[in-house]
# Entry
Amino acid sequence: MEKCVDLAPGKPFTAADLEGPGLITRIWITLPGPLNPGALRNITVKMYWDDEPTPSVVAPLGDLFGATFGHPREFESAYVSVFSGAYLSFFPMPFASRARIVFENEGPHTVRLFFFQVTWLKLKAPLDDSTPYFHCH
# Structure
């Protein structure tokens, strides 16, 4: 599986399509900022749980990882961090049957050298009906 891609304008890229039940435990992203001005605001992250028709997560890349207004500042917290050019999310993201993570470059220029990793656990038992899902808009 690819871990580095160029994101062409207007073409959604599916970075993960996982069969559950499962739990996403970490999302890691990095991209060279000087090559890609505006990318933190122009890349939209969409996450779909269990074949839902509309995403539960729709957010600019930078905002999702705490780099608001497209201006990253290094910080670390329990769930997100921006450190040494990397954007990390540790929010637990459970799903019962399927999870899809899609990145879409809504800017006018190709985003070069977009590196990503999605770490997850395949669960042996189904999710409890009361399990909360991750949402962000």
